[in-house]
Amino acid sequence: YNLAISRSVDNDSVKMLVVDSIVDIVYFIDIIFNFHTSFVSNTGEVITNEQKIRSHYLKSGFVIDMMACLPYDAVNAFSSNSSSYTEIFSILKVMRLFRLGRVARSIHRFLESSFALLLLMLSFYLIVCHWFACAWFVIGQDDLKNGVMYGWLSTLGNKTGQEFTVFVSENGTVVTGGPPTGSMYVTALYFTMTCMTSIGFGNVAADTDHEKAFALCMMIISSLLYAAIFGHVTTIIHNMTLATAKYHEMLDGVREFMILNEVPRNLMERVTDYIVSKWTNTKGVEQDKVLSICPKDMRADICVHLNRKVFNGHPAFRLASDGCLRSLATNFKMTHCAPGDFIIRKGESITELCF
């Protein structure tokens, strides 16, 4: 935004300048934290030595972070020679984009959550829309400076009754007047989002050659981006309802089986109550499948935790050692029973102990 739109203290950008200054302070605090944050070496070892941490950070991302936190906005706002220094500082501010890779790696551990991944996808889509809107704004400004008065900015000025005035001075072409900066940015963002999600509505259109070329490139990129992001969004939403769909599919299959084999109604209700009760307690997660993934020692710890009520409440296990409890826990089998169901009936042979 700051690279596309030149701002000074004369316009309504004081609030934005304060926000940018706060962001710069946050970046500076993050630099201090990075000097004390451990990292993982190439061998997989977690480095906690402060001297090695400082050396690693100075060699890796310190230069980019320092250039990203310098107060370019304040310098630009109060600079008298905006034609030279403003462009240089605005270009240096783009260094912040190099931090996106590290940010993506930092939040990678949160991507296991479907909601977090969905939020990340939508945020990335909005960021790309913002970048395209800034580029669209720059193209409109360049067309005005080149004397092209039928671009999207000129059309917006005519519609709002706030037309632009272009005149040539010793310092070059100067553009004055026009709608407020916020209105121009919102219009640019509206155009880019309509082009990225559809073919646009025509009220903001590309008229000049530069605008048409940019619109073609944007539609090509956005078509791929739209397919990739919203394809993932569809998969995420499907996975969020996958467990519920699996439950209803199983329940429908059991009911169809009961009807096909003419099972008595009371028995059918017992089976249905059992399935509903078991699903409520397990959410469709298979305990044996989860335990088979874990190593032996971890599997024993999980089994002890799952059977802790039996070990703590039954007198037979009060004097047992930890090793004995771990061995017993791995051989315990947890069986779910519906409320009111029989565990063992009189006259049945017993081949196992129940606790």
Defining key terms:
355 residues, mainly alpha, two-stranded antiparallel ribbon, 16 helices, 4 strands, 5% strand
Q: Strand order within the widest sheet? A: 1-2
Distance between the termini: 67 Å
Report the sheet with the most strands, covering strand number, pairing sense and barrel closure.
Answer: 2 strands, antiparallel
Helix fraction bin: 55-70%
Low-confidence stretches: 7-11
User: Which series of helices and strands comes N to C?
Assistant: HEEHHHHHHHEEHHHHHHHH
- Structural class assignment: mainly alpha
Write down the Rg: 32 Å
**Morphology call:** elongated
Mean pLDDT: 79
* Strand segment count: 4
Helix count? 16
Strand content: under 5%
Question: What does this protein look like?
Answer:
12% of the residues are buried. The chain has helices at 14-34, 50-59, 62-69, 72-78, 85-93, 100-106, 114-145, 152-160, 181-197, 209-240, 242-260, 265-282, 287-293, 296-306, 308-313, 322-331, and strands at residues 39-40, 46-47, 164-169, 172-177. Residues 7-11 have low confidence and may be disordered. It is mainly alpha-helical. β3 (164-169) and β4 (172-177) form a beta hairpin. It has 16 helices and 4 strands. The strands form 2 sheets. It has a two-stranded antiparallel ribbon.
